[in-house]
Amino acid sequence: MISQEFMLVSMLGVLFISLLSGYPVAFTISGVSLLFAFLGAALNVFDMSFVSAFPNRIYGIMTNDLLISVPLFVFMGVMLQKSKIAEELIESMGILMQNVRSGLTISVTLVGALLAASTGIVGATVVTMGLLSLPTMLKQGYSPKLATGTICAAGTLGQIIPPSIVLILLSDQISASYQQAQLALGNFSPDSVSVTDLFFGALIPGLCLVFMYIFWQIINSYLNPSSIPKKKKILAENINALYLNIFKALIPPLVLIISVLGSILAGLATPTESAGVGALGAILLAYLKKQLSFKVFKQVVQDTAKTTSMVFIILVGAALFSLVFRGYGGDEIVAHFLTNIEGGVVVSIIITMTAIFILGFFLEVFEIIYVVVPIIGPAILMMGVDPLWFGIMIAINLQTSFLTPPFGFALFYLRGVAPPSVKTTQIYYGAIPFVIIQLLMLFILWHFPALATYLPEIIYN
Known about the structure:
Mean pLDDT: 83
Strand content: under 5%
Shape: globular
Order of helices and strands: HHHHHHHHHHHHHHHHHHHH
Low-confidence stretches: none
């Protein structure tokens, strides 16, 4: 007789192979789950009552106020991309830093951090900076490896620096996993992990990553001087005009960051309310820069609808998958494996982080958040692991997967806009130092969890 364990392993194997086939992820997850639900029911190893809870799951997604912020933040990011804020920032910062060693790479990193705090969309940031800064960096004499690696790494900062869509979605799943773990432990009134908690917790690690990127770029300029151009002097008569242009370029994104992120962190508005303010602010900035037209607005709405639809269809499919997975007893198997493994919580977290890192080679971030986190999250959090620290560790791990060859999505985004003279292998080699930096940040956060937990504790106290 076929066992539940055999069906569970078969379902995971078919799902993984199907995801690699290139078929749309959302329909793959839901289709494979439904197929194995019917197959298991026919073989009397699955109870279809688990699937009957699916409409309630969909209703829960529809009534989740937090998820309303996702399309608003996506809209804000796409609109800012059209308003050419990134173009002005890169041009002004590049000129200002041209008399500094590896100045343009430092400028791209700083602009990437600002765009991350303004938009939180990795793909848009990588493509925008690839189109605007990569030709300039190559023309000035920066090596293709250094230039492409810097752009990809700076673009992925949108994963960890709030307001990040990844953090918003991750907070929803971490909160659900934590409540499930607490209920299993007998705590029937558990605290929730809010998106504001993750925003506070991600600030210091995100800024540390920016500092570590810049530190590496400076070190590299001495270790490998041939990878950067010679310094140039800024003419004195141009300095005042340059400062004025930088001031004009910096004010719009800073105002938007303060209004959106500041209102969330200060407790003046919920993430959804702040996302609405950000979307309206992005429209006003595009209007003031004379970049707003019906054609542009139509493109922004269409791009927002496509991205949002993709996210929510994956979420619906993942909800069905989690029900079928639980119907086969998968949650109990994972919890038993992780809680009884030799080495306890330390080895369990190492296995979890390694699995997420490897899955990041093949799966998108949203798939990992919606499919993997609900499976492993409750088991890990039942061991007494801080959910905030665990969430930030996952966020940095997922950010690393964006850069890891050969399937890092940031590398694909840049390959799509890079000139033919830049080889794919150069993009891969350029990303490796930044992957190492992110793994180092993961190691540091492991040994110093206060980097993620200190700021939320101070704010709430």
